[in-house]
Amino acid sequence: MHFQFNEHTQQLQARMQAFMDDHIVPRIGQWHQEVEQQGIYPPSFMEDLKELARSEGLWNLFLPGLRDDEPGTRLSNLEYAPLAEIMGRVPWSSEVFNCNAPDTGNMELLHMFANDEQRERWLNPLLEGRIRSAFAMTEPDVASSDATNIQTLIQRDGDDYVINGRKWFITGAAHPECKLLVVMGQTNPDAEVHQRQSMVLVPIDTAGVEVERNITVMNHHSPEGHCEIVFRDVRVPVTHLLGTEGSGFALAQARLGPGRIHHCMRVIGLAELALELMSDRVQERKAFGRYLHEHGTVAEWIALSRLEIDQTRLLVLRAAWMMDEVGAKAARKEIGMIKVAAGRMLTQVSNRAMQAFGAMGLSPDTPLANIWSGGRMLQFADGPDEVHLRSLARMELKDRAPRRGDSARYMTLPERR
Questions:
Q1: Which whole-number Å values give the CA distances from 404 to 219, 401, 411, 417, in the listed order?
Q2: Do the beta carbons of residue 206 and residue 231 sit within 8 Å?
Q3: CA 251/CA 244 separation, integer angstroms
Q4: What burial class does residue 120 get, using C-beta atoms within 10 Å of its C-beta: 0-12 exposed, 13-18 middle, 19+ buried?
Q5: Residue 299 has pLDDT above 80, yes or no
Q6: Considering the entire predicted model, what is its pTM?
């Protein structure tokens, strides 16, 4: 693995940073005014910025398999990582570049598994940024971190599938331009546990699809939505099956690899912003006769934050590099590691920054409270930390199994009589 980004990536970094400085950051205040105060979503400037980003070649940057005839810039995961970090500093900015979750994961799924008809109807409009989508997997009545628990039924009835079930925390489903739900459910409850689930493509305006509420997350309202959706006798043609029957679990794993790593890339940008805010703050404020940074505890906060951010970045870049070199399946340990490391790092760094700001850090005058809650949420999203740690421990012990006991050679034990 090389630690220097190639020339093409460095050029894109400069262009992305310039775009953020010139067009995104100056509109942060307008975004809050329109979206949070006036309830306008998407904000009035979004389509103009999307058109500008596409014209400047900053479009669909996340898809290594992008075809020559598809809009966007084909990049590897490693090349995309520093660009995601830059756009991650302003959470809503990723939509400007058509690099926003959950659409990125859905586009990757469709890119890998959609048939020609599905590509024409759903993938192409998503790549063009003309529609949005959502991924409907998690459910309120089961521990959805174990996807084999999914209870929603997808039953064959002639030339249709009939869907019944309840999903929640479905990100993106409240977006006015959300047209597609990728729904995971059981098509064969009696099959082997990992062969029971399938995925079907459901237009959100299909009869029987009811978006019951947009659930707040830690009392934070997201305009794009984290919705609870009920499916009551929802009928779609069997041609809406994605992949094959029984492949839903495998498709979910294929989707989550890149999605998890994109989250972690963006987290680095948020953490850098939190550290910058904290560093500026502690050089401006005094307490007990000294600037805050002159107090040992605060100086330690800054040092530890730098250590933790750079450690996490290196883990993320290694995972991205491995995905490029050996694929997401072979990099599953590294992907699991960054998923845990990134969320925990972001909550720690942003918590210190909030403490440095005092009461202001809890207010909407800084982005810190939202950054902290985003880090805390990431410890649930795409699988709870505990699930990843469980998997990591299993992989570590499995790797160790052939050499179990070898470590005894390094011990010096007293003779027993």
A1: 48, 5, 14, 26
A2: no
A3: 10
A4: exposed
A5: yes
A6: 0.93
